[in-house]
Amino acid sequence: MNREEARKRAEELVNQMTVEEKASQLRYDAPAIKRLGIPAYNWWNEGLHGVARAGQATVFPQAIGLGATFDADLIREIADVISTEGRAKYNANAKHDDRGIYKGLTFWSPNVNIFRDPRWGRGHETYGEDPFLTKTLGVSFVKGLQGEGEGLKAAACAKHFAVHSGPEGERHHFDARASRKDMFETYLPAFEGLVKEAHVEAVMGAYNRVNGEASCASETLQGILRGDWEFEGHFVSDCWAIRDIHENHMITSTPVESAALAINTGCDLNCGSTYQVLLKAYEQGLVTEETITESCVRLYTTRFLLGLFDGSEYDAVPYTEVESPEHLALSEKAAAESFVLLKNNGILPLDLDSGAIRTLGIIGPNADSRAALAGNYHGTASRYITLQEGLQDYLGDRVRILTSVGCDLFRDRTEALAQVQDRLAEAVTVAENSDLVVLCVGLDETLEGEEGDTGNSYASGDKESLQLPEVQRQLMEAIAETGKPVILCLAAGSDIDMSYAAEHFDAVMVVWYPGACGGRALAKVLFGESEPGGKLPVTFYNDLADLPDFSDYSMKGRTYRYMDKPAQFPFGYGLSYGDVQVRKVDFAYECTEEEGFRAVAAVQAVNRSERASSDVIQVYIKNLDSDLAIPNPALCGFARVHLGAGERTTITIPLDEASFQVVDADGKRITDGKRFRIYVGTSQPDARSIELTGKKPMAMDVEVSME
Question: What residues are annotated to the active site?
Answer without folding.
Answer: 238
